[in-house]
Backbone:
């Protein structure tokens, strides 16, 4: 039943994306606001990622110790890291729709490709770092297209998240702990 509800929600969200014409927080006749849309997308993304991190990676690597997780998962015959699974989903969505895009970024990226690129991304990542538990919303224009951009804190949900980043040779920050904001989920929706 929950799976059916998720499918219905996803279908409704994609349908509503075509009705987005204003900025965050505004109700739109026949649709939902960009903020409601991105908040709902983030809820699904965050829930899926937490489940993969705890129920798959955490259980199989730490509790049952039957397989490891590795950034070189194909060579190592291991599980992809939660951040890699998130990126794979983002890339697959980008192949199927231009109604929204999302990425995982950080002010302290292990991979330089995950560093913020726009002024709004930099402002938003700094805001969620300085204001734990709060989201960031702003409009921006890129390449002549106006977007609603939402940035949500990406928090270390289990010890393995923090320790993996702290031990990685390319990590610019090595003192993360559970509960810390490690980066942000950036969701961008075209307006108009």
Residues:
């Amino acid at each position: 039943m929950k799976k059916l509800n998720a499918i219905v929600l996803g279908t409704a969200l994609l349908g509503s994306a075509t009705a987005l014409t204003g900025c965050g927080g505004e109700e739109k006749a026949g649709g939902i606001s960009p903020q409601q849309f991105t908040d709902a997308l983030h809820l699904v993304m965050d829930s899926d990622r937490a489940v993969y991190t705890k129920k798959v990676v955490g259980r199989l690597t730490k509790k049952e110790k039957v397989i490891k997780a590795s950034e070189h998962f194909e060579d190592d015959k291991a599980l992809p890291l939660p951040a890699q699974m998130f990126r794979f989903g983002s890339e697959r969505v980008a192949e199927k729709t231009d109604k929204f895009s999302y990425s995982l970024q950080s002010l302290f990226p292990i991979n330089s490709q995950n560093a913020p690129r726009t002024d709004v991304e930099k402002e938003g990542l700094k805001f969620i770092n300085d204001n734990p538990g709060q989201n960031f919303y702003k409009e921006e224009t890129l390449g002549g297209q106006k977007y609603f951009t939402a940035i949500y804190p990406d928090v270390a949900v289990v010890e393995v998240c923090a320790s993996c980043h702290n031990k990685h040779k390319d990590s610019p920050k090595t003192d993360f702990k559970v509960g810390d904001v490690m980066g942000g989920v950036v969701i961008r929706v075209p307006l108009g």
Observations:
- Residues 34-190 form a domain with the Beta-Lactamase fold (CATH 3.30.450).
- The CA atoms of residues 146 and 181 lie 28 Å apart.
- Strands lie at 101-105, 136-142, 145-155, 181-190.
